[in-house]
Amino acid sequence: MPSLHPTAFEDCLIRVENVSKIYSLDTSGGASASVNSQVLFDVNLVIPRGQFVAIMGHSGSGKSTLMNILGCLDTPTRGHYWFDGRDIAALSDDELARVRNHNIGFVFQGFNLLKRMTALDNVATPLLYAGVSRAESRKRALALLDQTGLVKFAAYQPSQLSGGQQQRVAICRALINNPPLILADEPTGNLDTQTSREIMAIFQMLNREQGITVVLVTHEDDIAAYTQRLVRLKDGRIVHDEATAQ
Ligand SMILES: Nc1ncnc2c1ncn2[C@@H]1O[C@H](COP(=O)(O)OP(=O)(O)OP(=O)(O)O)[C@@H](O)[C@H]1O
Ligand SMILES: [Mg+2]
């Protein structure tokens, strides 16, 4: 396993330096009063390529806020974020969208599938946006559904699938552009224990066999045990960052 805390710039997929996040909340109902709320405090986090990382912490500790920054869905108020050696603050909106679409696969607790689309089209759609032909997009989507044992559900809509099946579709969708990074915010939060294990086995396989870097938020020790490294947030600060007890 590579070092938990690499220092060489080129070894890092993710390098977060002294990142703080302050939300400004409008408290005036349209007048100009606002109150600032700081939810991340000087967070430092370096993740090498190929690592499988769990982020834990109480509700409100800043896990999703940090994940949104890692996923380039939000920007830090202070500090720096380099993704794959690129300073995110220096990218235009178009470049940021490209990083999100091509380099990062997102998986969420609520699956976030499009309800009126089939499983196949849910998986294929990001490729269509990337300019790939419809036939090629569908072919690649089918191959991914096949890998996760879902090919016979390709024509089903999300409401016709179990939670575990929906999450597998969402993982296929996250993988369709071959991203080096998967960010998963409580991906097993809506699933029973057995189904959660099946989903974690998929993340573990993707990490071990394809070298995909996976960063995953969870509330459960059993889920974190699948990963290599545990980062614990408390009140917006990293208070623990060590190899996971296997
Ligand atoms: N858009 C926002 N505007 C203002 N405050 C926000 C916003 N998003 C999150 N917060 C606040 O930031 C803090 C951290 O929220 P965050 O969603 O990161 O927590 P979390 O650790 O993911 O919690 P949970 O386990 O419940 O998902 C919370 O106090 C929340 O109210
Ligand atoms: Mg959250």
Key terms for this structure?
binds adenosine-5'-triphosphate; Rossmann fold; alpha/beta; 32% helix
Describe it for me?
The protein is an alpha/beta fold. It has a single domain (6-243), classed as 3-Layer(aba) Sandwich (Rossmann fold). Helix content is 32%, strand content 29%. The protein has seven helices and ten strands. The protein has helices at 63-70, 93-103, 119-129, 134-147, 163-175, 193-210, 221-224; strands at residues 12-26, 34-48, 52-56, 78-83, 86-87, 104-108, 181-185, 213-217, 229-234, 237-243. The strands form two sheets. The protein has a six-stranded mixed sheet with strand order 6-7-8-3-9-10, sandwiched between helices. It has a four-stranded antiparallel sheet with strand order 2-1-4-5, covered by helices on one side. A hairpin with a 7-residue loop joins strand 1 and strand 2. It is globular. The two termini are 14 Å apart. The mean pLDDT is 93. The structure holds adenosine-5'-triphosphate and magnesium ion. Residues 63-64, 185 line the site of magnesium ion.
What order do the helices and strands come in, and which of them pair?
Blueprint: E1 12-26, E2 34-48, E3 52-56, H1 63-70, E4 78-83, E5 86-87, H2 93-103, E6 104-108, H3 119-129, H4 134-147, H5 163-175, E7 181-185, H6 193-210, E8 213-217, H7 221-224, E9 229-234, E10 237-243
Parallel strand pairs: 3-8, 3-9, 6-7, 7-8
Antiparallel strand pairs: 1-2, 1-4, 4-5, 9-10
Helix pairs in contact: 3-4, 3-5, 5-6
This protein binds adenosine-5'-triphosphate and magnesium ion.
